[in-house]
Amino acid sequence: MMKILSGDSILGRSFLIAMMLGGCTELxxxxxxxxxxxxxxxxxIQPGGNDEPEGESESEDPPTIHLLGDSAMSSQFNRPQAxxxxxxxxxxxxxxxxxxxxxxxxxxxxxxxxxxxxxARDDIAAGDYVLIQFGNADQRAxxxxxxxxxxxxxxxxxNDGEGCADLSTSYYAILKAMIQEVISKEATPILIxxxxxxxxxxxxxxxxxxGTHNVRDANPEELHPRGNYPEAxxxxxATYEEQVALIDMTEESKRVLEVCGSDxxxxxxxxxxxxxxxxxxxxxxxxxxxxAIRDDPHPAFDRLREYVITExxxxxxxxxxxxxxxxxxxxxxxxxxxIAYDAVEASSESxxxxxxxxxxxxxxxxxxxxxxxxxxxxxxxxxxxxxxLTSVFAQFSAEGELGPSEGTVTFRPTRDTLGVVEIPFxxxxxxxxxxxxxxxxxxxxxxDQRNIAVVEGPMNATDVAISNLTVDRGTSLELAGNAVPVxxxxxxxxxxxxxxxxxxxxxxxxxxxxxxxxxxxxxSGGSNVVAEIEYSLSPDFSQVIPLQEGxxxxxxxxxxxxxxxxxxxxxxxxxxxxxxxxxxxxxFRIYPFxxxxxxxxxxxxxxxxxxxxxxxx
Length: 617
Hints:
Layout (H helix, E strand, L loop, with lengths): L6 H14 L44 E5 L11 E2 L2 H4 L8 E3 L7 H5 L2 H10 L5 E5 L11 H4 L22 H14 L3 E5 L21 E2 L11 E2 H11 L5 E3 L1 H17 L11 E2 H17 L6 H4 L7 E5 L3 E7 L3 E11 L9 E8 L3 E4 L12 E6 L3 E11 L5 E11 L7 E10 L6 E6 L11 E3 L3 E2 L3 E3 L2 E10 L2 E10 L9 E7 L4 E13 L4 E8 L8 E2 L14 E6 L12 E2 L5 E9 L6 E14 L3
Parallel strand pairs: 1-3, 1-4, 4-5, 5-8, 11-18
Antiparallel strand pairs: 2-9, 6-7, 10-12, 12-16, 13-15, 13-17, 14-16, 17-18, 19-20, 19-32, 21-25, 22-25, 23-24, 24-32, 25-31, 26-29, 26-30, 26-32, 27-28, 27-31
Helix pairs in contact: 6-7
């Protein structure tokens, strides 16, 4: 394991940053720190200036690409997770790509580690390009703040990165120090804003502020909000625009995610609302970077631009339609997002993607109106430029015989080099008679990386959505005398907070009555964690009903306990059983928090289950 530098070393390095950024006289070096021999201080970059280091000359050899960042960029070895840096070399001909990005790196714990920043810096040669993308881990709070956390601009709550004196916790200032050292090596820095998270405003297809790395509220132990990290990087690039290029991946990934929508976007991340990328999403983001290099007129890209390989790219998300159980006489509505780049031949102004559905009861539409009549089993999507971000909607009407059926939705572009994409479709038609039971389970094992809903009987359900909780997937805890791998959520908040939860929802295709929700839970790593479970018929939880009386507490650490609660109209076991009409959604959330001051504790969750039965139609 690589060791994070001590606080004393960070103080000494902070003084160095201060000197590089113009000298903050109130900061004093720690005389006990021996920084060792260093290269001559790099020249200070000037706002709006274009002064190049003396003696710079372009190498005749192809430049090397250095990637510095976090898990969204890094090479991954645990498929299906991937980083976009793995795919970048495919779009850059004859160039060596050195990927030094890694999970959990922030600007702070990357820059202050000799085996990371100093090793990367020493490997940079004149004429190279250095692509820098951080932001996810910079938002760490609690015990992890000292090692990883920063403020977007400055810890005093201002948006003045240039004037910030608290340099060791300024995302802006550390990025500035990085690009100064890159320029001193006669190399070219390129800043890349962080990839958007798959976090949406409840009930919408709009990304939330946290989805775009805008921390607008202060953490409980902090006086000021952390701020807007992409905005800080944009401000830095704008201040030194002639020397530093910017690729706005936050905005570009946001655009793609909002076309996909909240349901489809879950197929792009290892866990919903998360930051770790699945391979298809990583491949798309690599294309975003290569296209920016090709199309952005910034002079920093001039030499690199000639190496970009322009290849048509075509993908449909999700890569399958497995509907599960579908009652007779009801219709499911499924979204398929088309993502295509350079989809039109250079000699043509437009083209088509022919979409065809094969399978009994399967039809297609370009409308997102679930009540609209489907158009047909074959429709055309027109391509008018080099980029396509749009959606097709597949409807299935469960008519005819009971049992399983299969089909395919085929996407066939007129440009042959794009290839053909086939999305398999399968469904089981059931007859939801009075009293037909249903259950929905979310197992949450460490091996179940995506927390997928498992449905028995007529019910639709979302996968588990993790909001502002760090997931630990490496722990086995005691359950009925056996060690079972379970999901743990790190709990840092000392009060119940509305945006920190594990959430999920169910939507019946027929009228149902709900019986109960059950779950195995415990505290782990400490004894301070408690939990509350609530449900709501509103996606924004504007009206909530608690399921339990008081807070859920645990008798022992690391031992899973079984909890079950009836789902009633007044909560706490009071009132009538709750019924859901067809297509009405019920939302659940588990809120963990600490009873006392302190961090490092976990809430372990295993096998969430909701049960009920069909009522008279």
